[in-house]
Design brief:
globular
Length: 300
């Protein structure tokens, strides 16, 4: 269900209708939250219960969302005629995989490396795991904004490069990079200022609050700034058709910087979760610098 939903969402985004994907995704999450409430709190006898009930809530909400987005796909005038499909159209799959597979490998490598770094943080202690979860949940609101701008930039760069408007594509890249860095810095300042009361909504543990606030400071000075470079520059390179270079940089950085230095700084040198966060910042910085300087120079 998620795979089909993502594919159709990508069609709408490519045709300039991202609001449809966003609207249906929002409705899906609202439905899922409502069903989860019924399962967990049981305000009245509900036929779904327990962990399996939560799983069914996810499937039901995804199924409803998929039906809605399929209806939109056939109702909107996108001039997609599926009846004219020919066997030779399958040859396009090779071209699609050439562009999409490196990004998939990069995402897989990143997710696996995050699992390993979580295991490294577990060596620091249970409190460190809890702190990471709380801080990551709050930082996510900064992350998702930059990611959204990065995806939009990828579409714009793809359109402009396809039209051979390379100078305009480069201008859009720099413009969106400045906007993303400014927004990331602004939101990081807000997290730095209001981090403690926000963390207090989740826990009253003084150790978690102390370390969490320190991570917000580190995030403000380095983490989110370089992450802005990654979101824009990586997606710009992919939009321009360069998918192999970002994949190589991402894989090398995830494992050499994030995983290795998390262990060295966090465990071996005894810096704990702060050391792991420094390693994450090193990962973001390494990727951002390579994407911006080497990637742009490589692609002219």
């Amino acid at each position: 269900l998620p795979a089909l939903f993502v594919i159709i969402s990508s069609i709408f985004k490519s045709y300039g209708f991202p609001q449809i994907s966003v609207g249906i995704s929002l409705g899906m999450n609202i439905l899922n939250a409502a069903l989860n409430y019924l399962v967990i709190f049981q305000p009245f006898p509900f036929f779904l219960k327990g962990v399996s009930g939560i799983a069914w809530c996810s499937n039901i909400s995804r199924g409803v969302a998929l039906i809605c987005i399929i209806i939109c796909l056939f109702r909107l005038p996108l001039q997609l005629d599926f009846h004219k499909m020919r066997p030779k159209s399958l040859l396009k799959i090779k071209e699609i995989l050439r562009v999409g597979l490196p990004g998939g490998i990069s995402s897989l490598s990143y997710n696996v490396s995050q699992t390993v770094t979580t295991s490294v943080i577990a060596l620091v202690g249970v409190s460190a795991i809890s702190t990471k979860i709380y801080v990551s949940n709050l930082v996510f609101y900064v992350y998702v904004l930059g990611l959204s701008l990065g995806m939009s930039t990828s579409l714009l760069i793809g359109w402009l490069c396809g039209a051979k408007k390379y100078d305009q594509a480069y201008s859009v890249n720099l413009q969106n990079l400045k906007v993303t860095i400014l927004l990331n810095a602004t939101l990081s300042i807000l997290l730095f200022l209001f981090g403690r009361p926000l963390l207090s909504l989740f826990t009253k543990d003084p150790d978690i609050l102390k370390v969490g606030c320190a991570l917000f400071v580190l995030g403000y000075f380095s983490f989110e700034i370089f992450r802005g470079f990654n979101h824009i520059e990586e997606n710009s390179l992919r939009g321009a058709g360069d998918v192999v270079f970002p994949m190589i940089v991402s894989i090398c950085s995830c494992w050499a910087m994030s995983v290795l230095f998390s262990y060295i700084l966090g465990v071996k040198l005894g810096l704990g979760l702060t050391g792991c966060w420094i390693a994450f910042a090193m990962d973001e910085a390494f990727r951002g610098i390579n994407y911006f300087f080497v990637g742009n120079q490589k692609n002219g």
